[in-house]
Amino acid sequence: MLHIRTMNVDDVPLGCRLNDASGWNQTTSDWLRLLALEPEGCFVAEWNGQPLGTTCVTRFDTIAWISMVLVDTAHRGRGIGTNLMRHALAWLDRSGIATVRLDATALGRPVYEKLGFVGEYELARWAGTAAGGELRPEIIMAADLQLAAIIALDEQMTATPRGRLLARLFAERPGAMRVTAIRRQIAGFSGVRLGGRARQIGPVIAGDESSGTALLDAAFSDQQGQTVFLDVPLPNRPAMRWAESHGLQIQRQFLRMFRGRPVADRPEQIWASFGPEKG
User: Fold this and answer.
1) Most buried among 12, 122, 184, 194, by the most CB within 10 A?
2) d(CA 77, CA 71)
3) Are residues 93 and 159 in the same domain?
């Protein structure tokens, strides 16, 4: 019998085991961040008392992201993932959420389509070793006083108020966030997270090509010699060209999908997504 309950900190090893088995990049820190951002919105599926599936939601005002839809490989095909999704969507509907978004793998896409999700645009995960990056003078380490401007720029480009997420990322690793400014105005910013298989470069948000490529160059300089992942929206052609020219290869693709009211984000200004957990 299937039972779905709220996730807690004691379930983090389960989440790590499931994402490792699927070849995903998340770590204990990622799971703890999900729980901190939405403690009532992370769920565990149990089959006859055995925990074997997860999903998490994060609300940003009237927009929510669903992530970490994982089911133990030995128990797939029983509708557990679909029931987790239905449980999460019902929870969001009760919360008055207007838009639900997610980044779908090829495996998950048919499930999400049956639940009313529609495709928006694709993202390519580029993978490889960071080499040859340049830290240009205009790229500097982000300071506390710049966080409000970073959050405002991010909302302008993503059409989502992700301030809680960005503040959490800055607090976790303040030295990993960089900015570029034009006439004292923040023109772009970048972050990077430590993953189980690679360093995840992102989010990288910039309003112009010069700032975007400068931030990506700086990220490569910072992660010199490390294996990196970079999730790039296909509509951002300059970012795709940059990744290819720096020796990265496409590992997989995601389809960004939504249910409910469309969000007018600007994928051409998203040089690297945060990752499938938050877009």
Assistant:
1) 12
2) 9
3) no
CATH number at residue 139: 3.40.630.90
Q: Is position 194 within any domain?
A: yes
Tell me how far apart the alpha carbons of residues 187 and 213 are, in angstroms, rounded to a whole number.
Answer: 12
- Dihedral angle sign, alpha carbons of residues 160, 165, 171, 172: negative
Q: What is the pLDDT of residues 128-182, one digit of tens each?
A: 999 977 778 889 999 999 999 999 999 999 999 999 999 999 999 989 999 998 7
Tokens of 196: 């189980």
CB contact burial 252-275 (16+ within 10 A = b; e otherwise) = eebbbbbbbeebebebbbbbbbbb
Give yes or no: residues 77 and 194 share one domain.
no
- Residues 43-60: pLDDT tens digits? 999 999 999 999 999 999
Joined together, the tokens standing for residue 221 give: 């300089």
Computed over its alpha carbons, how large is the radius of gyration of the chain?
18
Domain enclosing residue 130, as ranges? 125-272
- Domain count of the chain? 2
